[in-house]
Amino acid sequence: MLWLRRNLFWAVFGAASVLLLACGGWYLWSGVSGNAAVDKQIDDAKDALRVLVEAKPTPSDTNIDRARILMRQLEQVAHKEQRFFGEIPYSPQQGIEFLTVLNSNLTGLRLMASNRNVRLPSEFFAFSFESQINKPKFADRSFPVLAEQLAEVRLIITPLLEASVSSLVSVKRPKTPDDADASPYCHRLPRMPYTSLDAKLDLLICPYEVTFFAFSENLARALENLCNAERFIAVKLVSISHEEPPKGSGGPPGVPPGVRIPGRPPGVRPGPPPRPLRGSRPGVRPGAYAPPPPPPRGAGPEPGEVAYVLEDRPFKATLLLYVAKMVPKTVPKRYSP
Question: Quick check: is 146 in a domain?
Fold first, then answer.
C-alpha cells in the first residue's frame, strides 16, 4: 500500500494502458469479424454474378432490352384483360324504387325467353328473386348486394337464352339478408371471402347455379356464349342427368323441334310396311308374289355402307358458375352471408 501511494501516477497510468489495450484488442477483433462478413458477401455476389453470366440466355444488353419490351407488352395485356374482371354496372336504386328496376329486368328476361322459345317454370318466373318481387320493405344491408346480384343473374341468363335452351328449371344465387334461411332460390354456397390481389384491389367471387333442359348443340352454344360474355364467368362444374323434360317443352321425345326423321315425309306417322305387289311388274305371272322394286339411286345408303341415325334427346344440365370481379380496397366490404 505504501508503494502504491508513492507510485500512484505510474499505477494509474499502467491501469489506463491495460484498459486501452483491451479496448484496442476488442476493436481489432470486431473489425476482423466485419471484414470477414463483407468478404463473404462479396463472394456470394461473385457466385450470383457467375451464375447469371453462365445462364442461358445470358443477361446481355440485347436480352435485357427484349425483357423490357415483353414486360411492357404483358402490362398492356393485363390492362386490356382487366376490364373482364371489372364490376358489373348495376342500378343504384334502393328500397321500393328497386322494385321498379327488378320488375323491368325480369320482364325483359321473360320476353327474351318467349322470343327464343325457351320454356320457363311459370308465367311469372322471377329467376331466383321470388322473395323480392312482392316485398314492401328491404333490409338496409341488402344493398348494393341485391342490385349486384340482379345484374349478375342477367349476365348469366342472357347467354343461355341466346343459345335457345329447351327449358329453364331453376336459378340459384348467394343468400342476402332479405332471403329466408331455407329459401329454395338461394345457393348453398355463400359468397366467397375477399382475396387480396395487390395494395389496391381485392378479388370477389360469387357462385351461381343454373339448371335447364337442352340438347347437346344448345349446351355447346350456351358454354360458348358464357365464354364470350362481357365479364369473366368461370364454369366450375357441369352436371348432366338424363331426366325427362317437363311436359310441353318441345316436340316428340328424341326428335329436336324442326328435325325430320330420315325417310319419312313431314306429318306422316309410322305404320305397317306396304303389302307386296302382285302382278304389277312386267314378266311376273298374275297373282304371284313380286318383290318391291329397288329404291332409286341416292334414296338410301349404297351397298356396303352403314346408315347412321343421330337420335339426340334433351337432357338436364346443371352449371355451377363463378362470377369473378375486382373490387377496389377503398370500397366498403359487401355483406357476406
Answer: yes
Rounded Cα gap, residues 323 and 337, in angstroms = 17
**For residue 98, is it within any domain?**
yes
Tens-digit pLDDT profile for residues 228-260: 888 888 899 999 998 877 665 444 334 444 444
User: Cell 370500397 appears where?
Assistant: 331
Q: Is residue 154 part of a domain?
A: yes
Number of domains in the chain: 1
CA angle 70, 71, 74 (to 5 degrees): 85
Amino acid at 282: P
| pTM of the complete model | 0.59
174 cis-preceded (ω within 30 degrees of 0):
no
The three cell numbers locating residue 334: 359487401
Among 233, 251, 239, 262, which residue's Cα sits nearest to residue 325?
233
In one letter, which amino acid is 271? Answer: G
Please provide the distance, in angstroms rounded to a whole number, between the alpha carbons at the two ends of the chain.
88
